Each structure stands twice: as C-alpha cells, then as structure tokens.
C-alpha cells in the first residue's frame, strides 16, 4: 500500500533548528512541516506589520529556510509552514530571496492568505465565546482577527505544483492534513479519513513533544539524549494508518506512553476535536509499539464539520508591571513575607490603581498555592509582585516598589529584577465558513 | 502511595481552560485510577487554582483519563498574571495525589 512520510521540523516558533536539518538529511521524508504559530503570536505579528508592511512573519523564517532549503531542494522534500503569521506574502518573498541567494532555482512558493477576517468580524459583530459580549465592545483596542483555515488551500497549492506552502493562521493539524489530502486524494466529505489525517497532524504538530520531549521525570520516566532530541516522522499509509518514528540514533524515545501524552495534549472531549474540515474523534484511538521508537496508531475517526471556523481576536488588554527579588538562608520565608507586606503597603501609599495583583513567593506558593508546600521552610525563595494596570506608567511603578526593597526592605534581598509590558489578550469567536475565502498566490524562483 | 508511582500526566491549555491527562503506566492499574481519581477529587485538589467545573473523560483502551478544568488559568493564558500562565506545571501537582496502597501479591 502507498505511503508517505511527514516530518515535523518545529513545534513552536522558537524551536531548535538542528532536528529539522536531521529530518531533511536522514529522515527519508516527503514533506517537512514547521508549526510555529501560537494563539497570541499572530496578534503580535499584526502589530509588527502595521509598523512595517514588509514585516509580520516569523522571525526565524530566514534561519530555518537557509538551513533546510538546499537539502529539501536536492531531495525533493516539500515544505509546509505557518511561518507566514500576519504576512504570508512577505514571508514567501523573503523565502524567494533566500533561495536566490543560495543559488537555487525552479522553486514554486505558495502564499496562502484570507485568514485575516478583521473586517468581516467587525461587520458581523461576532460574539466572544468566553464572555458572551460582542467584539465591538473591545472598541479600538482590537488589533487582529484571524480565522483558523483548513487543509483545502494547502492541498490546492500542492496540486498546483507548490514546493513550499506558507500560510498564516491555519489550524495546526491542517498543515499535515493538507499533504495527506493531496497525496491520497481523500474526499472532503470522507469524515473518517479527515479524522485520521487530523489525528496524524495533532500527534506531530508539537514536534519533540511526542519523541520524548516534555516527558522526562528522572527515576519514573527516563529519556536519554534530550540535548539532541530527534523530531518525529509520521509514516502514513493510504488507508490512514500511522506509524510514528524518528531518525535512528537521534535523542529521545517514542513509546506508547509518549504518544498517549501527546494524543490528549490540549484536547477537551476526545470524541469532539473541532477542526475546520472535520470534527475529529480520538475516543477510540489505540497505540501499539511495533519496534524500537516506532508506535502504530489506529482508530482515528471523524464526523461532519460544523461549517463555522474559530477566530482568534487579538486586542490590547492592559498593562502589567512586575518586580522580583530573592531571599535565602535562615528566616528566608519570614523576610520574603515581610517584603510582600511592605510592597503591598507602598502601592497603597503611592496610590497605584490596579485591577488585579498577585503577591507570590516563588519556591513556596507561586505555582500551586500555599497548600502544597506549607511548613517546608525553603532555604531560598523569590518574591514576585505582579499587577495589572491601565497604563504603562502605572505598570512601571510596580517593579520600582520591589526594587526599592534593596535599601528600604528586609535584610539580605538580592537579584532584583523588574519589567513593565503591554498585554495583548486573545479571545475566541466563531465565524461562518462561507465568509472566509482563502486565496493561493504563487511566487517563482 | 502517590499517583505518580503508577501514572504519568501532561497538561495542555486553551484560553482559560486547562486539560490534564492521567495515564496508567500499566493497564492493570487503570481500574484503581478510574475509581479514585474522580472529577470531584481533582477539583478539590486544585481548589486554590481552579474556579470552574471539572469534567472527566475516560479512555479505557489507553488506560487514560482526561480532565478538563474550566476557569483554571487566571483569566486565560494570554492575560494571566500567574508565573506559569499556561498551567503547564499542574500535571506535576496532580501526580502528588494520594491513593490507597495496593495489596501486595502473594
């Protein structure tokens, strides 16, 4: 039976680059997929594009393309990525320039646009899922609205001969589903096949998270070679059966346990994983080791798509100021608590308006509340004060009041640090699919 | 016995919702986990952090449970003031859960 091999070259925008090179060189793959776009990234990218019309795509695009383009060209490996972020056309042009500078020719690059639905979202005044309010209630604080587009434009671009496909906001699994639809000619209403293809994409999209990354717990779950972790290869048959594997000799491990953790990662109801092209059903998935670092995955299924697409709406939410300082040795916790009390009182005295604040002791109660570590008296800890304000000027005052603990606070405070930042919030809404019109534009080298 | 001795776990995030998987290392321990790691217990365990409902989904063929915790991420990953805004460390907290010690065979 016919099969293809998909490699996952990145699981987030800042991911390591060498594992992608290793996949291209030794993975015998047909496609190399880079998933680099988190929920908030596109809103930040949109802000960058407003400042500079040639910006707004992934900052590591050039480094990644330079590293893998010559190998992919030599071996006929096709590249698919959402590194276009808020500006897929500029990303495609940058890729063209890199290919030319490397002396490569005869490459067809597809840029997929149409995920930017800001105008339609405002016109339809979409409802925000969490709050029930409309997006017009965000007023002029909105910076972006991007729909999660599906696999169809990616498959179309491949059918039209694309060697490289660059998208903006696409559903992460769609980056993998696209080439499967194109290669196997599955029908767009074959919900089972679409569900199986979505399962492939979901398992591979976080790259190292299925090959032993984000898994090690010494003594309980040991993983060797995390500093040279290999990224996954999905070997997919025409009937949708998947084997997850990696380059022999690379670090990490693939076992039923690593696959199960990734299967449920960011999943709510396993029977209803909402995607643009299908409602995938992972509730009957089975995994089975068939060799060293080789796990077979079966049982993916799916149901008819909903006809609506998720939209991520980015908006300027607030400003956040933060300060930290460390205490250690006997009485560290008492001095840390005194420090928090002093900062709390100082912020009241100088009158900083805050809509929300946290007074944490890192090492005691910052991650899971105080219940878990009560009475353990840590040798060292870090005071952390963080608060939300309406302006950057007010946010700056939060960290300042932690820093002044140096000469005004408890004994022995060291390593003070402060920051103030604008917070771009992201909320979700749904938009009818028919209002979103993806387009494919080609650029040739 | 701690849950960590017989299960492993991973946290995922979407907006203000956290999901935490609990997966038995060995299939024979799944019934124990299914019996004692209930949605109510998980909600009580995270009473300082999770303010919404906890739903449990069962995947017996994988020896796995999936918990969905609402209003769990300080208003949402993108705006949370928490040090671990994604709640990625919540899986480790769940593995600290106490389970009754099993009968030793023989």
Largest sheet of chain B: 4 strands, antiparallel
Give the overall shape of chain B, derived from the CA principal axes.
elongated
Strand content of chain B: 25-35%
What is the count of helical runs of chain A?
12
Beta-strand percentage range of chain A: 25-35%
User: What radius of gyration of chain B results from the CA coordinates?
Assistant: 14 Å
Helix content, binned percent of chain A? 25-40%
- The string of secondary-structure elements of chain A, in order, is EHEHHEHEHEHEHHEEHEEEEEEHEEHHEE
- The tally of beta strands of chain B, per DSSP, is 4
What's the tally of helices of chain B? 3
What spatial order of strands do you see in the largest sheet of chain B?
Answer: 1-2-4-3
Low-pLDDT residue spans of chain A:
none
- Provide the low-confidence segments of chain B as ranges: none
Q: How does the major sheet of chain A shape up?
A: 10 strands, mixed
Between the first and last Cα atoms of chain B, what is the distance in angstroms? 19 Å
Range of helix content of chain B: 10-25%
How are the strands ordered across the major sheet of chain A?
11-12-8-7-1-2-3-6-4-18
Mass-distribution shape of chain A: globular
Description:
The complex is a heterodimer of chains A (445) and B (106). Chain A is α+β, with helices and mostly antiparallel strands. Chain A is built from twelve helices and 18 strands. In chain A, a hairpin with a 4-residue loop joins strand 9 (273-274) and strand 10 (279-281). The radius of gyration of chain A is 24 Å and the shape is globular. Chain B is elongated and about 40 Å long. The mean pLDDT of chain B is 93. Chain B is built from three helices and four strands; from the N terminus they run ββααββα. By secondary structure, chain B is α+β, with helices and mostly antiparallel strands. Classes of the chains: A alpha+beta (445), B alpha+beta (106). Chains A and B meet through helix 9, strand 14, strand 15, strand 16 and strand 17 of A and strand 1, strand 2, strand 3 and strand 4 of B.
């Amino acid at each position: 039976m016919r099969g293809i091999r998909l490699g996952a070259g990145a699981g987030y925008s800042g991911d390591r680059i060498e594992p992608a090179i290793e996949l291209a060189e030794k993975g015998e793959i047909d496609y190399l997929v880079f998933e680099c776009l988190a929920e908030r990234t596109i809103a930040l990218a949109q802000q960058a594009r407003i400042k500079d019309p040639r910006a707004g795509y992934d900052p590591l695009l050039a480094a990644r393309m330079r590293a893998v383009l010559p190998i992919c060209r030599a071996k006929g490996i096709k590249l698919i990525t959402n590194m276009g972020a808020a500006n897929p056309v500029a990303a495609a042009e940058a890729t063209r320039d890199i290919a030319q500078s490397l002396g490569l020719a005869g490459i067809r690059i597809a840029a997929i646009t149409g995920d930017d639905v800001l105008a339609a979202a405002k016109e339809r005044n979409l409802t925000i899922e969490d709050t029930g309010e409309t997006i017009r209630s965000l007023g002029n604080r909105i910076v972006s609205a991007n729909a999660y587009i599906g696999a169809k434009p990616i498959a179309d671009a491949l059918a039209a001969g694309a060697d490289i496909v660059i998208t903006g906001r696409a559903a992460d699994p769609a980056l993998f589903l696209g080439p499967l639809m194109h290669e196997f000619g599955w029908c767009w209403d074959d919900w089972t096949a679409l569900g199986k293809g979505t399962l492939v994409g979901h398992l591979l999209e976080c790259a190292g998270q299925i090959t032993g990354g984000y898994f090690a717990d010494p003594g309980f779950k040991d993983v060797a070679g995390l500093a040279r972790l290999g990224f996954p290869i999905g070997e997919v048959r025409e009937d949708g059966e998947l084997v997850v594997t990696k380059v022999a000799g690379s670090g990490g491990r693939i076992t039923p346990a690593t696959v199960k953790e990734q299967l449920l990662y960011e999943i709510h109801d396993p029977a209803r994983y909402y995607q643009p092209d299908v409602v995938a059903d992972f509730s009957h998935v089975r995994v089975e080791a068939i060799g060293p670092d080789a796990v077979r995955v079966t049982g993916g299924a799916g149901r008819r798509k909903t006809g609506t697409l998720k939209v991520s709406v980015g908006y300027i939410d607030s400003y956040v100021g933060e300060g930290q300082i460390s205490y250690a040795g006997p009485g560290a916790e008492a001095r840390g608590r005194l420090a928090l009390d002093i900062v709390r009182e100082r912020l009241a005295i100088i009158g900083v308006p805050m809509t929300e604040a946290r007074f944490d002791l890192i090492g005691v109660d910052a991650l899971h509340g105080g219940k878990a570590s009560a009475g353990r008296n840590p040798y060292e800890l870090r005071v952390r004060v963080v608060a939300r304000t309406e302006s950057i000027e007010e946010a700056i005052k939060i960290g300042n009041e932690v820093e002044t603990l140096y000469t005004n606070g408890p004994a022995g405070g060291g390593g003070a640090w402060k920051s103030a930042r604008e917070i771009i919030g992201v909320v979700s809404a749904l938009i009818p699919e028919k209002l979103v019109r993806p387009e494919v534009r080609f650029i040739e080298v | 016995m701690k849950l960590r001795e017989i299960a492993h776990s991973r946290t995922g995030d979407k907006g203000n919702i956290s999901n935490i998987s609990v997966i038995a290392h060995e299939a024979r321990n799944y019934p124990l986990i299914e019996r004692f790691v209930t949605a109510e217990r998980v909600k009580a365990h995270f009473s300082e952090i999770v303010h919404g409902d906890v739903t449990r989904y069962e995947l017996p063929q994988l020896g796995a449970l999936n918990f969905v915790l609402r209003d769990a991420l300080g208003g949402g990953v993108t705006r949370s003031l928490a040090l671990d805004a994604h709640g990625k460390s919540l899986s480790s907290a769940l593995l600290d859960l106490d389970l009754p010690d099993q009968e030793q065979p023989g």
